[in-house]
Design a protein that fits this description.
This is Restriction endonuclease type IV Mrr domain-containing protein. It comes from Streptomyces chryseus. The chain contains four helices and 15 strands. The protein has 251 residues and is an alpha+beta fold. The protein has a six-stranded mixed sheet with strand order 10-11-12-13-14-15. A three-stranded antiparallel sheet has the order 5-9-8, with no helix packed on it. Helix 2 packs parallel to helix 3. The longest helix is centred in the middle third of the chain and has 15 residues.
Length: 251
C-alpha cells in the first residue's frame, strides 16, 4: 500500500524507486510510513536507536506509534535514510489517538516503544557491533567473521590461508567469501559463492572492500546472495535487499 517514490543517491547519483515497508497496526490494518516526496535522502554515517524509529499514524484507527525508519541501500555501498512526512500536531485541547493512555508510546530503557513489536522477521535488538580495524587481508576476513558472529552465526571456522575455493568462512548454514582486493567483485565471484552455498545447503554471504560490478550486483539480487561492503574501520554495510533481510532476521 506504500507509494513508490524516486530516490537519487547523493554519492553516486544512481536513481532508485523506493517502496516503503508495510507493517501491521494493532487494529490489524497495514500501515506504511508516508514518505516525504521531493525531500533529499540523508546518507547514514552513524546510527542511533532514536534515529531508527519514526512516528506514523494509522489511517484506519488513528493510532499513533513508532515504526522503523525507512532506509535504502545503494549499490555503491551508501545507506540512505528516506525522509518521512511528519505526523500533524493535534489541535489545541485535543489528545492524539494512541494505543496508550499517556498519549505516547511507552519506551523501554533502550528507547524503543514496548507496545509496538519489531517486524515479524526482525531479530531482537542486538548490542552495538564493535568493528575491527582492517590493515591486512587477514584482518578483513577476521572482521567479517566478527560481523557474522554478531548476526548470530555460531561455530564460525576461518580458513588459515586463502583457499582455492574462495570460501574464507564457514558455519552451520553459512559460507562466506571476503574479497580484500582493490577491484570490485565480479559476476563469476558471486556465482561461485552461490554454487558453494547451494552444494552445502547454506546461505552464501559476500564481503568486499571495493564494492561490486553492476552485473555482479544484479546477479546477487536474482540469486538472493547478501552483499556487504567494508571500509577500513571494519564496519560492513549492506548493499542489496538480501543483505538487509539478513540483518533483520539474523542467523
Amino acid at each position: 500500500m506504500g507509494e513508490n517514490v524516486p530516490v537519487r543517491c547523493p554519492a553516486c547519483r544512481r536513481q532508485h524507486t523506493f517502496t516503503p515497508p508495510v507493517f501491521p497496526c494493532a487494529c490489524g490494518e497495514p500501515v506504511a510510513p508516508p514518505l516525504l516526496r521531493g525531500a533529499a535522502p540523508e546518507r547514514i554515517t552513524h546510527r542511533t536507536w532514536t534515529d531508527a524509529w519514526v512516528t506514523v499514524r494509522c489511517g484506519s484507527c488513528g493510532r499513533q506509534g513508532q515504526w522503523p525508519q525507512p532506509e535504502l541501500g545503494c549499490a555503491c555501498g551508501v545507506v540512505l535514510r528516506i525522509p518521512v512526512r511528519p505526523v500533524p500536531r493535534p489541535a489545541p485541547g485535543t489528545r492524539p489517538s494512541t494505543g496508550t493512555r499517556a498519549g505516547r508510546p511507552p519506551a523501554s530503557a533502550a528507547g524503543h516503544p514496548t507496545h509496538i513489536p519489531l517486524p515479524p522477521t526482525a531479530a531482537p535488538p542486538r548490542p552495538k557491533f564493535r568493528p575491527m580495524t582492517i590493515r591486512t587481508a587477514r584482518d578483513a576476513v577476521t572482521a567479517a567473521a566478527l560481523y557474522l558472529k554478531w548476526l548470530g552465526f555460531r561455530d564460525i571456522m576461518q580458513s588459515p590461508e586463502r583457499p582455492a575455493s574462495g570460501i574464507d568462512l564457514r558455519a552451520p548454514g553459512m559460507v562466506a567469501q571476503v574479497d580484500p582486493t582493490t577491484r570490485p567483485a565480479g559476476l563469476r565471484d558471486v556465482e561461485c559463492l552461490w554454487l558453494h552455498g547451494l552444494s552445502a545447503s547454506a546461505v552464501g554471504v559476500f564481503f568486499s572492500l571495493a564494492g561490486y560490478a553492476d552485473d555482479a550486483r544484479a546477479r546477487a539480487d536474482t540469486l538472493g546472495v547478501p552483499l556487504f561492503v567494508m571500509d577500513l574501520t571494519g564496519t560492513p554495510q549492506p548493499v542489496n535487499r538480501p543483505a538487509d533481510e539478513l540483518i533483520s532476521t539474523g542467523a
